C-alpha cells in the first residue's frame, strides 16, 4: 500500500523538472495522475514513462486559462475518479533587472505563476469542498521569501503564492481541504543548469549543505503534504533549500 493509494492527482507543469518528479513520486505511491502542461511532445513522453493512460494522462493546459484548468480537473475525474490532490507547479522565468525588464515579461511571469496557482487552487478547492477532503500544494520559491536580483517579477509572483496559500487555507479548512506551499531553493533542473557558471557558484556559496537539491527531494516534501502524514497541517510553507537563507 502506497501513501497515496488510489488517490487522484493533477500536477501542473509536470512534463519535466520538479513537476515530473512529483508525478513520478505520486504514481510510485499509488496515485493516478493527470499531467497538465503545454508541451505536447514532452507530455506524451511523460505519460508513457509513468505507465500510460491507466496510471497517468497528459492533458494540454495553459494555467492562465481558468477554463483549461477546470477541463484538466474534469479529465482527471472522468478518467480516474474523485480529485484528491492538486499541485500548482507550472512556472517560467523572464529574468532581468527592473530597468531592462519589459512589462510583458512582468505580466507573463505573474500570470503563469500567481494567476495560474489561483486558478488551480480555486478549481481544486471547488471540487474538494464538496467531497469534504483534499490537499492542494503550491510551489513557491525561496525567491518569494528573500527577493533575488533580476527577479522582481518572479519574486513577486512566488511571494504572492505564499499569501494565496494562507488565505485559501483559511477559507476551506472547515471543509477538511488543506492548502500548503513548498519553497525550493537551488534545485538541479534543466532551467537552473542553464544559468551562467558564476551565478551558479554564487548561489552555491549561500548553501550551508554545500550542494544543490535534486527534484526528487522537493517531490518528497510535496508527497508529505499531499498524504495523510500532514493531516493537521494547512497554511504551512516548507523550505527545501539546504539551509540557504535561514
UniProtKB/TrEMBL annotation:
The keyword Oxidoreductase applies. Residues 7-180 form the Ketoreductase domain. The keyword Oxidoreductase applies. GO terms for biological process: fatty acid elongation. Keywords: Oxidoreductase. It comes from the Bacteria. It is an enzyme of class 1 (oxidoreductase). InterPro entries: KR_dom, NAD(P)-bd_dom_sf, Sc_DH/Rdtase_CS, SDR_fam. PROSITE patterns: ADH_SHORT. It holds the Pfam family adh_short_C2. Its EC number is 1.1.1.100. One of its GO terms (molecular function) is 3-oxoacyl-[acyl-carrier-protein] reductase (NADPH) activity. This is 3-oxoacyl-ACP reductase FabG. Belongs to the short-chain dehydrogenases/reductases (SDR) family. Coiled coil: none annotated.
Amino acid at each position: 500500500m502506497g501513501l497515496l493509494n488510489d488517490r487522484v492527482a493533477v500536477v501542473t507543469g509536470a512534463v519535466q523538472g520538479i513537476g515530473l518528479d512529483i508525478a513520478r513520486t505520486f504514481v510510485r505511491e499509488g496515485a493516478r495522475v493527470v499531467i497538465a502542461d503545454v508541451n505536447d511532445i514532452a507530455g506524451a513522453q511523460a505519460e508513457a514513462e509513468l505507465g500510460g493512460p491507466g496510471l497517468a494522462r497528459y492533458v494540454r493546459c495553459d494555467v492562465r486559462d481558468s477554463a483549461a484548468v477546470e477541463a484538466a480537473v474534469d479529465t482527471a475525474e472522468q478518467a480516474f475518479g474523485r480529485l484528491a490532490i492538486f499541485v500548482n507547479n507550472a512556472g517560467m522565468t523572464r529574468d532581468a533587472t527592473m530597468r531592462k525588464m519589459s512589462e510583458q515579461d512582468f505580466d507573463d511571469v505573474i500570470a503563469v505563476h500567481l494567476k495560474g496557482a489561483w486558478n488551480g487552487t480555486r478549481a481544486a478547492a471547488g471540487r474538494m469542498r464538496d467531497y469534504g477532503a483534499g490537499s492542494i500544494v503550491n510551489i513557491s520559491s525561496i525567491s518569494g521569501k528573500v527577493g533575488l536580483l533580476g527577479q522582481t517579477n518572479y519574486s513577486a509572483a512566488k511571494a504572492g503564492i505564499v499569501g494565496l496559500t494562507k488565505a485559501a487555507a483559511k477559507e476551506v479548512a472547515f471543509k477538511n481541504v488543506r492548502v500548503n506551499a513548498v519553497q525550493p531553493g537551488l534545485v538541479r533542473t534543466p532551467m537552473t543548469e542553464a544559468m551562467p557558471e558564476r551565478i551558479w557558484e554564487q548561489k552555491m556559496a549561500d548553501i550551508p549543505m554545500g550542494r544543490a537539491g535534486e527534484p526528487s527531494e522537493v517531490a518528497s516534501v510535496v508527497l508529505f503534504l499531499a498524504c495523510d502524514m500532514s493531516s493537521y497541517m494547512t497554511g504551512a510553507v516548507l523550505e527545501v533549500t539546504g539551509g540557504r537563507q535561514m
